[in-house]
Design goal:
nine-stranded mixed β-sheet, 14 helices, about 500 residues, alpha/beta, Rossmann fold, 2 domains, about 30% helix
Length: about 500
């Protein structure tokens, strides 16, 4: 049961397609006629077969009437998904022998006779089998037989009233062969589900769906990404952060380094996101992993979404820095997912994050890096807006999220392809600087919305023992601007040979 637009209880029929019922906020209204439209290959047949299989699970009879595909082709589609269509009536409206010369019309135009015969055949078939769920595939055949819009509309209306009297829930499939802008079917159908298949410049094609209309029912509007996998269609509902809230503790958690906690004020706060920005090789990933290690050692779960480097490289490098991740993976506390952005849509990525948080109970999420995420999907508009929604969702779930952003250049004026610092609750800047003929590294917190953070810049180093954060740097100015000036006072730079007393293992 669900509610309609007036708030009244309304029974629903599940479609059986993963995620689509969530988009529909419960399913379809029974005993109505629905239009499923999309170009060939968009997934209409797969969705329709799953709809009939869901009815079979409930003990109701299903009927698939095909005007274009053969029964063998439908069985082949089902086998590709590991399905069986036993218990579902499959009927080819035009048998193979009807294309012979004996069935050709000579006195009348073939469409005048065949249209009436086809519609009568559909009616007789439904009366004989008495199904509760019906799929009619496809309307393009009826449109061609009708020859003109008026006859076509009248035949569809006649079928609609017939199905309503029989108390059938009907999916009519259409492959969009009508003239552009023809909305005849939209006005007749109780609801319209539109499937799209988009070809991009590089990578796998992207698919998305939209509920064009659904009379009397609330649903989640907009476009929702989906994929066709073995087992059917998987829809990834558009993330709406406001719909996902839960209570959580707001007490800060340590990064595992006392000096880094001091920089941040009190550490990292649940429900906040932190941006680590800096040039390549400065230590952004290592710093994020050190913060994650502290959470793992507390027994919390973490999810790491790796875009840039290979998983094997990350594991070897972390082990060399005394931060072995394998034991936490073996214990089920850490899940590292190697992301191939060319094969992943933004909706699918957001769904993966939701699964990590809601199913795997991850309390810390790392996205490494935003550069790859944003640049690998240039054909997808509004990625920054989707990222904003994703970060809002993580915040309302009480998750500590760390985002890594690489900047162009090594020293001097560093630039980013896109500025999303305004989305972050905390921004940490990591920089190179030179002193006494050696390349050194600095870290500073330039923004935090949760505490009164330290304004100083600290030096840090990365070696086989991990990360060591030193005291505030007093001898340099202009480090963040990329043009440091040395003004010696007490010489408080870190020794490259002697370990600092501020290091926390």
């Amino acid at each position: 049961m669900s509610e309609n637009a007036l708030g009244e209880p309304q029974p629903r029929l599940l479609t059986g397609t993963h995620g689509l019922d969530e988009v529909l906020r419960g399913g379809l209204t029974p005993e109505r006629l629905y239009l499923v439209e999309g170009t060939p290959g968009a997934g209409k047949t797969t969705l329709a077969l799953k709809f009939l299989m869901e009815g079979r699970e409930d003990g109701t009879r299903g009927l698939y009437i095909t005007l274009s595909e053969t029964e063998a082709e439908l069985q082949s589609v089902a086998r590709s998904h590991g399905w069986t269509l036993d218990g579902i009536e499959l009927f080819e409206m035009v048998a193979e022998d009807e294309f012979g010369a004996d069935h050709e019309q000579t006195l009348l135009h073939s469409s005048d006779v065949e249209l009436g015969e086809t519609v009568r055949g559909i009616i007789e078939l439904v009366e004989r089998t008495d199904p509760s769920r019906v799929v009619l595939d496809s309307l393009s055949e009826l449109r061609l037989l009708a020859q003109n819009p008026l006859r076509y509309r009248r035949q569809i209306l006649a079928l609609k009233h017939f199905f309503a009297r029989r108390k059938c829930t009907v999916l009519m499939l259409d492959d969009r062969t009508a003239e552009p802008g023809d909305l005849q079917l939209h006005s007749i159908a109780h609801g319209v589900i539109s499937l799209e298949q988009l070809a991009i410049d590089y990578g796998v094609e992207r698919r998305r769906l939209r509920i064009v209309k659904m009379r009397g029912l609330k649903y989640h509007g907009g476009y929702h990404d989906f994929t066709i996998e073995s087992g059917g269609i998987r829809v990834y509902p558009r993330l709406i952060a406001a719909n996902h809230k839960r209570s959580f503790s707001s007490e800060p958690v340590t990064t595992g380094l006392d000096a880094l906690d001091a920089l941040l004020g009190d550490g990292l706060f649940p429900g906040t996101n932190t941006l680590l920005a800096g040039p390549a090789g400065v230590g952004k990933t290592t710093t994020a992993i050190r913060c994650m290690m502290a959470a793992l050692k507390r027994g919390q779960k973490a999810a790491y979404f790796l875009f840039d480097e290979r998983l094997s490289t990350l594991m070897i490098r972390s082990r060399a820095l005394n931060m072995d991740l394998q034991p936490f993976i073996d214990d089920g506390l850490l899940n590292i997912r190697q992301i191939d952005p060319a094969e992943l849509s933004p909706g699918e990525f957001a769904n993966a994050v939701r699964t990590a948080v809601e199913v795997d109970d991850a309390s810390l999420v790392i996205i490494d890096s935003l550069n790859s995420y944003l640049h690998a999907m240039p054909s997808d508009k509004f990625l920054v807006l989707q990222m904003h929604e994703l970060l809002s969702y993580l915040a309302q779930q009480g998750v500590v999220s760390l985002m890594i952003l690489g900047q162009h250049g090594v020293t001097g004026d560093l630039r980013s392809d896109i500025d999303i610092s305004y989305l972050a609750d905390t921004v940490m800047m990591l920089r190179f600087f030179e002193a006494a003929g050696q390349v050194r590294k600095s870290i500073a917190v330039i923004k935090t919305r949760t505490s009164d953070h330290e304004r100083s810049i600290r030096e840090f180093k990365i070696d086989s023992t991990g990360i060591t954060v030193g005291d505030p740097i007093r001898d340099f100015s202009g480090i963040l601007s990329g043009a440091p000036v040395y003004t010696p006072t007490n010489g408080n730079l870190m020794s490259l040979e002697v370990e600092s007393e501020t290091k926390t293992s």
